[in-house]
Prior knowledge:
Blueprint: H1 7-10, E1 15-18, H2 24-34, E2 38-41, H3 51-58, H4 66-70, E3 72-73, H5 80-84, E4 88-90, H6 94-108, E5 115-122, H7 137-140, E6 145-147, H8 155-166, E7 171-178, E8 185-192, H9 195-198, H10 203-214, E9 221-223, E10 239-246, E11 251-258, H11 262-276
Parallel strand pairs: 1-2, 2-4, 3-4, 5-7, 9-10
Antiparallel strand pairs: 5-8, 6-7, 8-11, 10-11
NADPH dihydro-nicotinamide-adenine-dinucleotide phosphate (NDP) is lined by residues 2-3, 19-22, 24-25, 42-43, 93-94, 125-126, 128-130, 260-261, 264-265.
Amino acid sequence: xxxxITADLCDGLDLxxxxxxxxxSAEACIPLLEQNIKVVDIxxxxxxxxxxxxxxxxxxxxxxxxxxxxxxxxxTELNRDAVSxxxxxxxxxxYPTSAILALTPAVQNGWIGGDIxxxxxxxxxxxxxxxxMTTHFSEVNENVMxxxxxxxxxxxxxxxxxxxxxxxxxxxxxxxxxxxxxxxILSSCYAxxxxxxxxxxxxxxxxxxxxxxxxxxxxxxxxxDTPPQTKQTLGNNYCLVHPVVDSRxxxxxxxxxxxxxxxGAAGQAVQNMNLMCGFPExxxxxxxxxxx
Length: 292
Ligand SMILES: NC(=O)C1=CN([C@@H]2O[C@H](COP(=O)(O)OP(=O)(O)OC[C@H]3O[C@@H](n4cnc5c(N)ncnc54)[C@H](OP(=O)(O)O)[C@@H]3O)[C@@H](O)[C@H]2O)C=CC1
Ligand SMILES: CC(=O)N[C@@H](CCC(=O)OP(=O)(O)O)C(=O)O
């Protein structure tokens, strides 16, 4: 059933979260924006800055591209000030949150360049509740599969954000896998590292310290000393990031993980709402992981 946004629905609203499918979400958000109601959109409708790129990857015309420029990409840690002032926040995709948080410190510092590979694994809830042959229990259980091998729709989103940080186009390969797990994303990222850094004494320690400094004031991004596991983020709003140097190949490896439904979606949406409404950023987001 199509959701009609009528004036009486909007009375007294400060902010609306939209978690509708792509296109339906923009169609629902635009009447709210026209009434100056703040919106956090959890779909992909306002994440890409260029309408033609949106059409290329989502296969539909954008309902109103004039909002694309205004929308703030809601990766809170990287865009905190802009989110605080925003009327429209495009909440990032679950895969892009894990990849962009893993790579931004090294890209921004100019420490990595050349071919970047992001290899991600997701639990099944990332696909939503609709049934398909690939998300049916008997298909997913005891199975691992790569999908969207010719290009996942989150690739332009990750590229857009890393290009902006690098101030030039990055060369990105992004590959997704479905694994027999309910929640969670684990991304393994690989990139050529500047040889002087890769060959320096205690290279991993040096890179890890740079990451720790970068995220020092960001409670929800933790730079870990050992490779993180999805269970450590189950049900919480953390993204765990572990950079390590392979000095043999002069390559940076960054492992990151998060809960696709929390830091990858609803948790980050609440984090953004807190800023947009002037609340403490971590309000209601202090849950610990359900562990083990
Ligand atoms: N799952 C994840 O990990 C993440 C999801 N997202 C995005 O968040 C949004 C929601 O995802 P998710 O909850 O997983 O998806 P689901 O498919 O599980 O849920 C979508 C919901 O939207 C409803 N719906 C569909 N079309 C319309 C419409 N035209 N008007 C009103 N309601 C409609 C559906 O109703 P009904 O059940 O009746 O069909 C359903 O309740 C999507 O845009 C998704 O891409 C973002 C980040 C991560
Ligand atoms: C496992 C799985 O199918 N994952 C989804 C991505 C998760 C998601 O919902 O992406 P948005 O944030 O862009 O909506 C997919 O690959 O399409």
